[in-house]
Amino acid sequence: MNDPRAALYYAPEPTDPLTRLANSWLGRDPETGATLPQPDFPNLAEFTAEPRHYGFHATLRPPMRLAAPWSDFAAAAQRLAAATKPFDLPPLRVACLDGFLALLLTAPCPEIRALADDCVRATEPLRAPSLPEELARRRAAGLTPYQEEMLQLWGYPYVMESWQFHMTLTRRLTEPERARIQPLAESHFAPAGATPRRVESLCLFTERPGAPFLIAARHRLGETPPS
């Protein structure tokens, strides 16, 4: 399975202080692909290896292989962005989610949930069918009946009612690891996490075989695509 993949993510604007803090934490800028020095925290490079590959983001349309030209996926993302008005995102907090550290919302945000659902629906006709090994890998984690239904319908179990906004900061941690690193993460993100921010763009991420995810385009919300 070496096909390129595409995804739709929320990533804060390049000028947002959260972007600088998160890229430093993970050690990579997905906008430029540049490797960045990380804070001098014990084992941070190893703890962040998996999220570093994906780049700092919140998943809206999970990564998928395409059954259509790349240009069709890009056009679908642009149309969806144009039809979505910018909105405010509640402040974020560092928390443990299923064993890994992530930034979570401090209050519900119906707009980001609706955008995630719309991203899945809008790009589903362009998704290549799931391979048996993809399905087996998802099922190995143990799925609820609803998540199994989502896997079969959309190619990913954690969408629609199973979706939860999160911006991953580490791999899954043992309890002693979490106890050591969570206070450091809370301190690192304190300058920006508590600040409300405006969601102004929909990010199209791409993954080439053997390479990490990069931001291929930022589509501005509410802007009509050029004809």
In a few lines, what is going on in this structure?
By secondary structure, the chain is of the alpha+beta class. It is 37% helix and 23% strand.
Tags for this model:
alpha+beta, four-stranded antiparallel beta sheet, three-stranded antiparallel beta sheet, 227 residues, 9 strands
Which helices and strands appear, and what pairs or packs with what?
Elements: E1 5-10, H1 17-26, H2 44-47, H3 49-54, E2 58-65, H4 70-82, E3 87-89, E4 92-97, E5 100-105, H5 110-123, H6 132-139, H7 145-154, E6 167-172, H8 175-193, E7 197-199, E8 201-207, E9 214-220
Antiparallel strand pairs: 1-2, 1-8, 3-7, 4-5, 5-6, 8-9
Q: Gap between N and C termini, in Å?
A: 36 Å
| Estimated share of beta-strand residues | 15-25%
Strand order of the largest sheet: 2-1-8-9
What's the CATH first level? Alpha Beta
CATH-assigned fold name = Cyclic Phosphodiesterase, Chain: A
Low-confidence stretches: none
* CATH-defined superfamily: Cyclic phosphodiesterase
- Rg for CA atoms: 17 Å
Total tally of structural domains: 1
Instruction: Label the CATH architecture.
Output: Alpha-Beta Complex
What is the string of helix and strand elements? EHHHEHEEEHHHEHEEE
Mean pLDDT: 95
| Tally of alpha and pi helices | 8
Q: Which structural class should the secondary elements be placed in?
A: alpha+beta
Major beta-sheet overview: 4 strands, antiparallel
